[in-house]
Amino acid sequence: MNLEIQKYLFDLQGYLVIENALTLDEVAELNKLFDAQKLPQPHESTRFGSAPDGPGFLDYGKPYCHLLDHESIMPVLRFRLGDAFRLDRLYGMQQDKGMKRGRLHSDYGASVQTSGAEPGVYHHPRLHEIVEGFVVVSWNLFDTGPDHGGFCCIPGSHKSNYKLPDAIKQNIDAWPCVLRPEAPAGSVILFTESLTHATYDWNADHQRRSLLYKYCVSHTAWKSDRVEPPEGIELSWRQKILFGPPGDPLRHFPSLFEKPKED
Asked: pTM to 2 decimals?
């Protein structure tokens, strides 16, 4: 899939699936490092490796850091966020068979709690609102999709000027507009946080493992805390920039696509 098609589909749908972004060997290595952590079972905690609270799961090993600026995601992130963006948050999701869904939500746009939009009433965004939101990059270490569960969303909802109706929110199985895209192990899902999305019931015999890296334009932030780089792991010049504090793009925060000149 070339970049022209990726841009079109992301803009149209609010999300994009890139299959075979990782090889089976790379997926196996990530799972091996995950298993070595001996984390609590999913029924005790569906999230793991969260940050901003230290480096999160980046501490698990260099292959987790390699995903920070993986070559398959950078052109799409550049298209959505420009040349200067930062890593704002990250965490992993794990689920075992029978674990129930989360709620449909968006962190930006008309359906976010702070938007002030009334159900059924056209919403004109205020000029100071962030309506596009951050971009989430979700790496799948096992198959997800219609037969399994995991990520689900309402394609195109990031462009909606109307709040999500309660009738859809309370009964997503009754509405075909709620989609569970196919995303095999080794694939990556990119989506804007203003897309209405959720975690669907996990129905597969195998475990769900997804790694979520959340990026934003350099001058914005979800909260004041920052993700810290992992100790003892050598990062590339571009990976180091991703951990920088918020700053005006290209003035107080450098481009991720121009290597700094050596002093």
From this structure: 0.93
